[in-house]
Amino acid sequence: MRKNKTVKYASGSILAFKIDEGVYGFARLIRQIELGYVSEIYCETAESPIEGVSVIKTIKKSPVILDTYSLLEMGEGEWSVIGNAAGENDDKVDELRFVFGTPPYDLKSIDVNEDERKISENESLGLPPYEQMGDEDVKELF
């Protein structure tokens, strides 16, 4: 497990992460924002990280914000960069808005450019939360 080690990653990086012994999941980084990287998590799993690029096809959850600093640089869980690829959601990322705040009176939405605006509870429905996901959060998806 690495600690405080610089790992090169960027938009398009494909990540492998260990879910359990002999079971790896996969994610792809889309765009860096203040909290981490807007990312997508894939449904497919494999027995080794190396198989990832060839097996990933179906997006399980998108968008999520991965805490890439904790996952890739501080060594939370077992995460590694295994490749780089463009994805179907790359062009849609500019339209993304996340929600944060306390309903019903203090709700805001924020986009990938960090532009905030006050919204109603109805407007917040369906928006993903503006929060980071760590290793355990991602594993709970499986």
Architecture overview:
The structure is a single chain. With 142 residues, the chain is mostly beta strands. The protein has a domain at 13-93 and 130-139. Helices cover 13% and strands 40% of the residues. It contains four helices and nine strands; from the N terminus they run βββαβαββββαβα. The chain has helices at residues 52-55, 68-73, 121-124, 135-139; strands at 13-20, 23-33, 36-42, 59-66, 79-84, 97-102, 106-111, 116-118, 132-133. The strands form two sheets. The chain has a six-stranded mixed beta sheet. The chain has a three-stranded antiparallel beta sheet with strand order 6-7-8, with no helix packed on it. β6 and β7 form a beta hairpin.
Give a quick rundown of the structure.
By secondary structure, the protein is mainly beta. The chain has helices at 52-55, 68-73, 121-124, 135-139; strands at 13-20, 23-33, 36-42, 59-66, 79-84, 97-102, 106-111, 116-118, 132-133.
Task: Considering the chains and any ligands shown, give keywords for the structure.
142 residues; mainly beta; six-stranded mixed beta sheet; three-stranded antiparallel beta sheet; 13% helix
Helix coverage percent: 10-25%
Q: What structural category arises from helix and sheet content?
A: mainly beta
Largest sheet: 6 strands, mixed
The number of helical elements comes to 4
The radius of gyration computed from the alpha-carbon positions, rounded to a whole number of angstroms, is 16 Å
Task: Categorize the overall geometry.
Answer: elongated
Q: Which sequence of strands runs across the widest sheet?
A: 5-1-2-3-4-9
Total beta-strand segments: 9
Q: Ends: how far apart?
A: 22 Å
